[in-house]
Amino acid sequence: PHLDAHELKTDDFLAPKRQQELEELTETLKRTNADKVMIEKPVKQQKQMDSLYNSYLENKYKLTVSEREQIGFRLAKKLNLKKINCVDVLYLMKQDSLLGVTAKEKNQLYLLNELGTTAKNFMAEIDGVVKRNSITGILKYLNTKELLQKNLSLYLKYMVKVGAGENYIGAEAVSEWYLRNLAIYSNVITQINANDKYVILIFGQGHIPILKHLL
User: Is 53 helix (H, G, I), strand (E, B) or coil?
Assistant: First the structure.
């Protein structure tokens, strides 16, 4: 939704080549015979998603540039699923605005500067992979242990240190990120039934290290 401080500028996923790659990816994922496809969309917007998905099933809706639709809707249709599950929840990061203020007061702006530089290099690295690879190749790369740890380190190596020993604003800001992921986790496990054998969860990469740990 273009709300992240550090965001990848992607290429044209509506281009014929990328659309073919999306078909190939979803054909591969279809082999799982997944019982559910869960996406990064707030639970409160389930009815809205139901309406869009039903329109898509009736060939009355054109998919927008979003992994929720390009992968999620496309895959759910191939799996003959009646709905797609919304499991996200949005928390306002209340402490984010205090991070900069505290860092300045405590002579810790270097931490946020290092975080920014690391994130920028991280995005440049991924951008290069996006340009050279198919969507399946990109997703395999994004889900490697090294890349997941690198994303999590932005929070645990830099942000968490701000205000340490005094007001712990950095730790509180990171705890809000963990809280959101815990809430997502609670939505996931309460929407899974005892007879579900396989569930596909589609989320932004930053969520994955924490969700993998929780699951």
Answer: helix
